[in-house]
## 1
Amino acid sequence: MSIPLHLYLPIAGNSVNLLVILGLGGGVGLLSGIFGVGGGFLMTPLLIMFGIPPTVAAASDSNQIVGASTSGTLAHFRLGNVDFKMGLILLVGGIAGGTVGVQIIKVLRQLGNADFLINLTYVLMLGIIGSYMFAESLQSMRKAQKKIHAPGVRKESLYGRMVKILPWQMEFKRSGVRVSVLMVLILGILVGILAAIMGVGGGFIMVPVMVYMLRMPMHVVVGTSLFQILFTCINVTIMQAWRNHTVDFILALLLLIGSSVGAQVGAKLGKKLRGDQLKILLASLVLVVMLKMLYELLARPEVLLAYVGGH
Amino acid sequence: MKIGYFILFFAICLLTVSTAGAQDVARMTVEPQAINIGALYNGTTLTAKGSLPADSEAIVRFMGTSCEFHMKEKGKVGGIMWMNLDSITFKGAPGVCLVSSAVDFKRLEANGGTSIRVLKLSGLKGSVQIEANGDGHENAFEEFLKLKQKEGLYREMLGNISYESASEGQKTFLAKIPIPSRLSPGAYTVELDVVRNGEVIGRAEQPVTVNLVGFPALLAGLAFGHSALYGILATIIALLAGLGIGLVFQSRGGH
């Protein structure tokens, strides 16, 4: 008697191989656990590659991220890596920014060429963030080696001094930083706008913002980012299921089983890596995705048609 | 006036007799007549069998109902980047079109008739309407075929029809049609076209229904009938599953 390896997904309208979906979930969950990104920017294109309609792929992925980020947040919470205060303020900003972003997209669609602007935003954002993170991590890894031989006093940057004079300063003990609530809120809004325009959870933008703008330690960044992504994806899942009927719960559950296990392993693996090592790995990942997107923009597609709603 | 009515009556009678005659040359039964999509459905094989004149060939088509497909056509922006640009709608195209033949279509066409060409995938061009803004959509139908073939929903198959020895001027045929896993519930038709000397001389069709059953039916009912509740349940189950997996890892000495 053979074990049935295929399962029919009623919302996606296709059957899938169980092992393939569990493997996809596991792989992306591992990255999610290590870097604190939801993985939507990786999972959705992979699901489309395996025959899932683009709209169902994106919505079901949000559903699975709810589970994966719950598991990841729990793992990071136990390791003391979640700054709830910072996460909540960023979340409030993110929700406000997301609402503004949805309106911007509506206007762009009316003007035409919205897809072009979305894709260009993707390539530019990924390119800028990836290159900056890569260069900075490489520099800090070199500096760390030099410091062993010649320790010196670090001079505070202009940005650091500007941040300190902003109003409504607040202490974030878990992150070990003191910054203006206003600044955290505005950064949350900006990330929310970009995430809504790009149609993703925003983890891969939020992580660099927390590291470079808020100066949070990398391990706390990962846990706090997962905590924030959890709420963003709860909102997206309910809205997509309610308004567009595009959430395939079975697909999400299969991905979730894989990704939750992957996220747990990833969180432990991430703890073994140094902050700058984590940053350089995430930067490499972001740059690879950017190059893939750039290639898709430049190379002639196999078929010159796409269903409405797809990427 | 009476002569006019007589001619009309005669013409209707003639048409009825000729249609009945065309149906007589082609007989077909299909098994199964209903495809049930359960949780473990991963495509199936549909069997069509029947009889046709010994000197003719069979073309069997599994067809979905006609739908509208709203799409975006890709084009180059600034001569460099490929983007989704114009909206384009294909009307009257079947959702599924699987064409089976025992012999190469070129061999059947070589005898002359154009009626065979409309049975091929490229023959759908005549029945599909394309609505798009502006010019430059000359290859849109060919791109549509490419997309549908990539999805496995449009296909031309050769050699999946076999014949048995002829007797009394009739031969029997057996067609095995592989039905894809990417199938939506609804009404479908299996069509048999009997071809001789490049022309279609007989026709028969059988309906096939595709239904969701068991767990997929329950889930689809909830997702489309009670969508808000479905969304909330999907979120709660995902949260609990995530927590459950997290706790399992903790109990196994996660720290």
Note: Confidence is low (pLDDT under 50) at residues 11-22 of chain B.
## 2
Amino acid sequence: MLLTAQQLQTPQFGPLDISLESSERLFIHGPSGAGKSVLLRALADLDPHQGEIRFEGQPQQQIPATEWRQQVSYLPAENQWWAATVGEHFPDANSDHFERLGFSTDTLNWQIEHCSSGERQRLALLRLLQNQPKILLLDEATANLDPENSLRFENLILDYQQQHLTALIWVSHDPVQIARLATRSLYLNHGNWGIAP
Amino acid sequence: MNMILLTPLDLLLTASLVLALAITSWYQQLGLERQLLVAALRTTIQLVLIGWVLKLLFEQVNLLWITAIATVMISLAGYEIRQRQKHRFSGPWGYGIGTLSVFISGFTLTLFSLLVVIQADPWYQPQYAIPLLGMLLGNTMTGISLALDQLNKSALQQRRIIEARLLQGHSACEAIQSYRREATRIGMIPTINGMAAAGIISLPGMMTGQILAGAAPVEAVKYQILIMFLVAVGTGFGTLFAISLASHRLFDERQRLRVDRLI
């Protein structure tokens, strides 16, 4: 198992168990307020939580927090940027990589605030992929994108997953997207696994 | 010393001017008269009281008494720092960070100036010890509370950006660094500006007081420079220390941003 969580719990959800194998695409859906985002936050160790999470068998506490978040990488629903230009978020930008994804080296000079929402979301993903994560936690990653940009984003994810045998946990409300991409899906309601209505 | 002593009548005369201002405020329906009179009354009572305390203290040079007074002053400064922050840490940290910082910077610097610079005999002579401590506490308190207020405010307002950096795998230290720098700057700027403006735009209060009391201007200036340096150093180190403690407390052992620790 790549990732396991046992008796995972915060005030908003749980206790619940998760296990994830490499190359899996686990989709989580459920009503808003069910605890989907806080579940991903706990997996990324961004919120205090109870229970045991293991990555490749190693308990979370034994891996330094910064390293954990590079391996188990969480992309929140809204992307955030701490500097003005794209390039400042990509210290070791590789131009090949950028070009394959529909960007050019010039992209590094772009102002974040001038990027479209589709570009921003793809760049936010690329930013995380710099760390070569083993697990990606995606929180309604394409909810604010039009169909064309959603597809580009999905392709970017699928390419990366094939190359690196990454596992995904993807929170999504889109039944078509789930049907298209999921290898497995779970329904979260009132902070616990349930049966989809 | 050729100091002209003030009589109660002199003070009554100026008090009547304050009263005239209050009446004007009432007449023009500004609604400030009540606040003005209460503040004037508080000033009178508080200063007269501290005058008597200092008089008593000066008459019996006793280390124990001075320590007691200093403790009260530092505790009140800590309390004031806590009150001046819109968002502060819950529990003992809310009071502890400010008090500890003001203690470390204000107290050590007062000791330093008494023992090394002024060298009064005995070193704790209250005529020097209490005003020095008071000046230092008053100024470091302002710097520390401005800086802490700014840091906590940014942590709350910018928490998504800070968390984005944590998610990128940055350390807590990297994620908070720019806000730390800004908070420290805001804490220290008033002191730096004060030094830059001294003598040109404003005559510092302490020096003015000494001159009014009959001291030679050049001697008063020397004391003022001493105080300004001490205040700058005290505010600087006090702010740095407080910000360092607070930015530690904003994160836990797993480098998670814990804005839930703020109230």
Note: The two ends of chain A are 29 Å apart (CA to CA).
## 3
Amino acid sequence: MNPELIQAAADNPWMAIAPEIALAGLALLLLVAEIFLPKSKHGLVPSISVAGQLGILVGLLVNWNGASVGQPLFNGLLMPGAHTQFLRAFFVASSLLVSVLGVVALAKQKMPKVEFFVIVQVVSAAMMLLSQANHFVLMFVALETVTVGFYILVSYVRTNPLTLEAGLKYLITGALSSGLLLFGIVLLYGVAGNPTLPGSSADSMNFDALYGFLQANPGNFLASLGIVLVLSGVAFKIGAVPFQIWIPDVYQGAPTPVTAFLAVSSKAAGFAILLTLVNVFSPYAGLVATVIAIMAAATILFGNLAALTQHNVKRLLGLSGVSHAGYLLIGVLASLTVPVAASAIYFYLFAYLLASFAVFGVMTHVAGENDADQELDHYTDLAKTNPFLGGILAIGLGSLAGIPPLAGFMGKLLVFMTVFAAAGAPVGPLTAGCYYGLLGVAIVGVVISIYYYFGWIKAAYFDTWRAPLLEGETDPTPARTPVACWMRLTLGLLALASVVLGLYQGPVAGWLLLR
Amino acid sequence: MTVGLNEYLYLSAVLFAIGFLGVLVRKNTLIIYMCLELMLVASTVALVAFSRFNGTMDGNVFVFFILTVAAAEVAVGLAIIVALFRRRQTIEVGELNALKN
């Protein structure tokens, strides 16, 4: 090998991405463990995975100020931002919780189990890189690692035709959005590298160079087209209207832990990269603000109205997740003028992580062998037969709905407050009235969402009449899985954190908002 | 007539549009998959043309990344399609509608 290349590789600050390397290395270790451990010891692999991820999470928390904020790494491919360490911890925590849910859910399937943990960790490592991307090549490769990993995860239970159908739908819509995103990147690269235009750069896929070019050339047609295409590609990841068509089917068909992974990590990664891109595209703020405002209003209304009529709880959570993306989008709009809005969005996502995993944790215990078949009716008597799961469900759903003493309420409040502040300095063609209108739409959306979230709580807490079973009929409700004590601990901690973070935001909000 | 940047961009836009419309209109999963690949290839045509016109190598290098990603996507995608065909005996999107409320 060329000695100069070796020298260049050695000069790169590998330690700066140690958490990502550790997570991906742990994934490789699991594969090796599967080969060398005797078949009877394969049950150890999930434990190694969970323990390893806990170790990485603790390492991140101990090294909280370890990220080299604001310094371009690897020739400008990566640029850790003010929230990088928070996002890393977020993705590792989410990957850890997905693995924990995976242990419970995969026990019901006759499937190879090791690959699940491996892919979850590789995807999470790619998300951590994605959130620090400062260059289109790295962004595209990291995003595709995430997407291709999700193709496999969504269709993981390959004996179930519903899961495979969900996998195919995710594959087609995912590849379509990658195509749009890629064409947008190509247009931006081409136009920003054009040597005849002012502000052009030889390294035009770098975000800083692109920002400089956009500032020097307001109103360039190809650049505007590229921006719209890139934003649509990212809008697919977060499930914003009109790129939400895949959400209900894929959420329903995917194994429950993967649905949780899609709902929390994939959405958070989408918002992390969207916030970076909105900053880069800020010279075209008028265009970006218009696109985002229209998408946000449509997303909130569509998500909430479509969720009203759902009986399958996974579809319901998917569509309500669409509306959550809508609330966050108005936060992204606010971040164009009020930088602290980014912190509010991350706080919201953290509250969303706590509440979502509590609810998905309950779902994995209520679901039977067929993961796609999870109806509201299956929750009848849950609170009576299993008060612990009933309580966790109520806290999780209450937090998602934004009921005051819970964390979800504080998240919504912070985001809405930053939008209110941003209305003081409207961007481009938007007026202050547009911001107030969006807030009005969001508040109507929250009110609608309380109806369907409480319909679910009602199903779990109040008796509904059911026809007695005739002879020869089998109970359509799947048998509930007993809750193991470590799962009690996890779910209890998630619910407790949702309550505590609602009453006392001190450290988390303080740290985030100071950024 | 000399072939300049614009001709390549028109070609790329037309290929992209054919791929995009194909994904929306066609009903056979394999043809849809071919259309998706066509979209990626359309982007690489524009990328190489831009790279040549701008005099930077970044575009050419990016093409390798795109090809690698596309290969990974095809490997996973065809596996899913084959597994689905085994279970359902069809790959027509109109008949794949088991997931609903």
Note: The longest helix of chain A spans residues 161-192.
## 4
Amino acid sequence: MRRRIPRLLFALLVAGLLGACATSRDTIVLLPKDDGSTGAIAASRGDAEILLDTAYASARPRLLGSKLKRDTADREKLDKRFGAALSAMPPPPKSFVVYFLSGSDDFTEESKTAITSLMDELKQRPSPEVTVIGHTDKVGGDEQNDALSLQRAGRMRELLVGMGVPPGSIESAGRGSREPLVDTAEGVDEPRNRRVEVNVR
Amino acid sequence: MDRSWILRIVLAAALALPAMSVMAAGVGLVKTSKGSVTILRNGKQLPAPVGTSIEAADTIVTGKDGSAGITFVDNSRMALGPGSRLAIDRFDFDQKTHEGRFDSTLKRGTLSAVSGKLAKHSPKAMTVRTRSTILAVRGTEFLVSTR
């Protein structure tokens, strides 16, 4: 019986080491954004906390104890380990603005380009979700502009449904003249405010 | 105004567009799905092709040959590599105020993530856990792996 105690201690020690090893396999890496800037992530384990705030900064739990080790990730190894996850990432949402003729829900001729790129974008996206927000300039009363902004959003919605986007995947709203792109005095006929903003996710 | 050009664009696009599923009232949507991808929901294992709605409390599982990409309603994005398991522990998002919470746990595998409106609104709103570590995501793009 006496001989067994050291063995038990040994077994417990081995189990403890294995347990520590099992958690040591975690890796956390902060990536730079597309524009080159980086955000920040606070990684904590027990009482230990480290802040990752530079490109490719990484945190790994230490083999023993409850500490975290700060490091810089090897980019080649990252590509190998995270390649599949990185390439499965859906693209970021994209916005489009389409402009309208004064007091009407007819698109301007110039909006053809934006509509074409919107359609191209939708074709590339699997299962796209779309939000459509209509706006007006500051000519006319609130009630009239609320209705017109909704009418403009409705025109865009029809167009989207016409090209096969399911109505359930489109959210639309009208904001009247309350959210101008260019702030003007009341009654100003500003073409840049007569618009529909479309966001594709 | 001559509207025929709009009609031409729409018809051309409609013919080329693949069938798209209708979005359900979930917290996210599967946007890429390769190989074996399933969701564990209420004890059931469901296939998760592109267009599958993700609900809070779902666990997304990829097989050895699998990978999956998800967009969430706050514009967060997450993608899993092969042999991964990600549990959505909590997801609340207020579209108007951008307040809420997004907690998830990577139980196995590799995760690539980009935070959205929740983390932008509050640095405490988004967390990702592994067995050993808790991440508070202030922004924006990051990778996590666990075995």
Note: The first strand of chain B starts at residue 28 and ends at 34.
